[in-house]
Amino acid sequence: AAGTVPRRRPRRSDMGRELTLLLLPLALLAAPARAEGGTAAAEEVKIEVLHLPETCSPKSKKGDLLNAHYDGFLASDGSKFYCSRTQNEGHPKWFVLGVGQVIKGLDIAMMNMCPGEKRKVTIPPSLAYGQQGYAQGKIPPNATLIFEIELYAVNKGPRSVEAFNQIDKDGDKKLSELEISHYLKEEFARDGKKRHPSAHDEILADIFKKNDHDRDGFISAKEYNVYQHDEL
């Protein structure tokens, strides 16, 4: 949500929550942001590249896991309605590109972007919050939005074939609790953050609760790939 929303003190069950992004989708802007139907096809995102590094690789694509900072402004008066640097102790935001975790305009605006690149993008209402606006984020109806974006990292997304195969050690095309448990332990060790001993079990249970739809004790390739309409 917008920067004015106070952040609660993390509970123990939140410890290590960021790692569930490896298997579960998270929202960047907590709002029901979708393009409105019946809009003019001529409306599109305008992109201005402010900085392009000499080395531009890899370029972002649908399904990639991105790390970025961004500021949001109303085009009508230039007022700022969002600043990622004032959220989460100033850490850049992680999200999966092109799967609806952010407004449609941002999904479009950040395609084919490389680490270190900066862009200024203008997003029409039809690709942002439409006719209803977003009162909680101080965005009025039919608002054109401007975002200044700085991209830091482009990684393979959590729902990619590569990610699935990395977890599926025995290659049987389904993920067991043991395989996901091992993967979580590796990720915990890799980022080096201190967590309560119960964090691993809580995250593992949450993953299976939300992904093992047929309750057979495994997460199949179909269950894992929640973005089944993608080319992942």
TrEMBL record:
<dbReference type="InterPro" id="IPR002048">
    <property type="entry name" value="EF_hand_dom"/>
</dbReference>
<keyword id="KW-0106">Calcium</keyword>
<keyword id="KW-0479">Metal-binding</keyword>
<dbReference type="InterPro" id="IPR018247">
    <property type="entry name" value="EF_Hand_1_Ca_BS"/>
</dbReference>
<dbReference type="InterPro" id="IPR011992">
    <property type="entry name" value="EF-hand-dom_pair"/>
</dbReference>
<keyword id="KW-0325">Glycoprotein</keyword>
<dbReference type="GO" id="GO:0003755">
    <property type="term" value="F:peptidyl-prolyl cis-trans isomerase activity"/>
</dbReference>
<feature type="domain" description="EF-hand">
    <location>
        <begin position="199"/>
        <end position="232"/>
    </location>
</feature>
<keyword id="KW-0677">Repeat</keyword>
<dbReference type="InterPro" id="IPR001179">
    <property type="entry name" value="PPIase_FKBP_dom"/>
</dbReference>
<feature type="signal peptide">
    <location>
        <begin position="1"/>
        <end position="35"/>
    </location>
</feature>
<keyword id="KW-0697">Rotamase</keyword>
<dbReference type="InterPro" id="IPR046357">
    <property type="entry name" value="PPIase_dom_sf"/>
</dbReference>
<dbReference type="Pfam" id="PF00254">
    <property type="entry name" value="FKBP_C"/>
</dbReference>
<feature type="domain" description="EF-hand">
    <location>
        <begin position="155"/>
        <end position="190"/>
    </location>
</feature>
<keyword id="KW-0413">Isomerase</keyword>
<dbReference type="GO" id="GO:0005509">
    <property type="term" value="F:calcium ion binding"/>
</dbReference>
<keyword id="KW-0256">Endoplasmic reticulum</keyword>
<feature type="domain" description="PPIase FKBP-type">
    <location>
        <begin position="63"/>
        <end position="155"/>
    </location>
</feature>
<dbReference type="InterPro" id="IPR052273">
    <property type="entry name" value="PPIase_FKBP"/>
</dbReference>
<keyword id="KW-0732">Signal</keyword>
<dbReference type="GO" id="GO:0005783">
    <property type="term" value="C:endoplasmic reticulum"/>
</dbReference>
<dbReference type="Pfam" id="PF13499">
    <property type="entry name" value="EF-hand_7"/>
</dbReference>
<protein>
    <recommendedName>
        <fullName>peptidylprolyl isomerase</fullName>
        <ecNumber>5.2.1.8</ecNumber>
    </recommendedName>
</protein>
